[in-house]
Design goal:
Blueprint lengths: L1 H29 L3 H12 L12 H63 L19 H13 L11 H10 L1 H8 L8 H18 L9 H32 L1 H9 L13
Helix pairs in contact: 1-2, 1-3, 3-8, 4-8, 5-7, 6-7, 7-8, 8-9
């Protein structure tokens, strides 16, 4: 998309430079007014033909031939690039919609369970709970403030309280589902979600590589704590971004997400 926009900018600069130069040249060659000259140039490069303004001198006719050869090509280049940008934008929007459907399924199957688990082991979670109580009145500014606060938060995991065996069992049960997500090519369009999946997979691989999770040395527990914190960080920020997407694009899904928000103590799926 960036390359297309750059190419369009170049075409537009050349196109407008041609319009100005050709208008001035036609005024000088044919002795026309500015309006007549500009009108002639526009209808020439737009290939719509002539009305009451047309070249009458030999020099004017020669100039017209040059203008048709150069101007029409540049004009068509502008049209082609604008069309390409519109099609590319539509394709990007389609991919984004599919991607967020995948993200929604992830949170339904795995993400919300992990969020509840991770926050349950975070000794300082109450400091950021309010940031996760998303309201219907939130604007993009509210999401931005919450996002900044969450990115600056020092995520904690009380590793000695974590039920590593239970986490291992849950993730192993979801391994096939997670592998299926990674095989989805649309994820290549969303780096942060891909990073989240990789972080979750890493926790899974670390836990599944250990036969005994009950008698680990402190050094190994500290290592696992770092892996879990990384996944926790990615997860909570991705969830907030997903809530913002629902708020701006799918109000009915956003309504359900608010009513089932596990971090809102007053939330209820029953509409009152």
């Amino acid at each position: 998309m960036h390359a297309i926009k750059t190419r369009l900018k170049i075409f537009l600069i050349v196109f407008f430079a041609l319009i100005v130069t050709a208008t001035i040249a036609f005024m000088a060659i044919e002795g026309r007014t500015f309006i007549d000259a500009a009108y002639y140039v526009i209808v020439t490069v737009a290939t719509v033909g002539y009305g009451d303004v047309h070249p009458v001198t030999t020099a004017g006719k020669l100039f017209a031939m040059v203008l048709i050869i150069t101007g029409v090509g540049i004009f068509l280049g502008v049209i082609a690039n604008v069309t390409e940008i519109m099609l590319a934008k539509r394709e990007i929007e389609s991919k984004l919609e599919k991607l967020n459907m995948v993200i929604g399924v992830f949170f339904s199957e795995v993400g919300m369970k992990l969020l509840s688990t991770f926050t349950g082991y975070d000794p300082n979670f109450e400091k950021i709970r309010e940031e996760l109580v998303v309201k219907a009145t939130w604007t993009d500014a509210n999401f931005l403030i919450a996002s900044k606060d969450l990115r600056n938060y020092d995520y904690g995991v009380g590793i000695h309280k974590v039920d590593l065996e239970n986490m291992k069992t849950f993730l192993l049960d979801k391994r096939g589902f997670l592998v299926g997500l990674l095989e989805n090519p649309v994820l290549l369009e969303h780096q942060s979600f891909t990073d989240l999946l990789r972080a979750v997979f890493h926790v899974l691989e670390e836990l599944s590589s250990r036969d005994n999770l009950t008698d680990l040395p402190e050094s190994d527990k500290a290592h696992l704590e770092g892996d879990i914190k990384r996944a926790y960080n990615f997860l909570i920020n991705e969830w907030l971004d997903y809530m913002k997407y629902l708020k701006n694009n799918y109000p009915y899904l956003f309504s359900l997400a608010m009513r089932t928000n596990p971090f809102d103590r007053s939330a209820s799926v029953i509409v009152k």
